[in-house]
Specification:
- The chain has 274 residues and is of the alpha+beta class.
- It has eight helices and ten strands.
- The strands form four sheets. It has a three-stranded antiparallel beta sheet.
- A hairpin with a 3-residue loop joins strand 2 (33-39) and strand 3 (43-44).
- Helix 4 crosses helix 6 and helix 7 (176-230) packs across helix 8 (232-250).
- The radius of gyration is 44 Å and the shape is elongated.
Amino acid sequence: MERAANLILTTGSLLVGGGILFKSFFYTVDGGQRGLIFDRFQGVKETVYGEGMHFFIPVIQSPIVAEVRLQPKTVASHTGTKDLQTVDIAIRMLHKPIESYLPEIYKTIGLNYEEKILPSIANEVLKAVVAQYDADQLIKMREKISQEIKEGLIERAKEFKIVLDDVSITHLGFMKEYAQAIEAKQVAQQLAERQKFIVLRDEEEKNAKVILSEGESEAARLINDAVKQYGTAQIEIKKLETAKHIAEQLAKSPNITWVPTGNGVSNLLNLKTF
């Protein structure tokens, strides 16, 4: 009985030990990652391993796991504009390595390329692009400048076998004095636009009064001509016809009552009081 128990214990120990030993010959690559092998005799092998479990020889070889998912990186730069204004600008990039070049990246840069390469090329491109524009152009042409920065960074990153999927300006700031000057300029422009609107409005009102005056003068002239040509009888007929037309239109409303006063057409209509 004791012998059987010892046999079971020994077998169990061998299985556990064998499992541990077996596991030590394999490493796992998770989703969004790629694997490399560093060989003590051959260096970094050129094979890039995908997701799953992979074999390696302990002591002689060491597994290396690299991230290949898009990751964010923000870089801030302190630079100058064409008109010698100091500007603080920050950009955000989404980056990842080109998988097939992972062995080369590891050999030449290391897997922490985002700390060694991205800040350097970002500052280089930012300084080159910003120096082409005046400070006020950075505000007015922000979208265009952002696109130029993006294109420049993508091209530079390719030289290091890095993919940039998105680049955007997240911060744009100027020295306090210049920022205050910009704000004052914007306020002045708003006041100028308001004053321009007031002048145009007054001009329109003036023109309207002139047109009204000219119309009244023309009406008076036509009446005088009519009196000379037809006498006052024809004009009275026109007045009666006009009053009749107005009475017919207003009589359709339930709130208006027609009252004949007998003293002319000026009091032809009286409104009800509620």
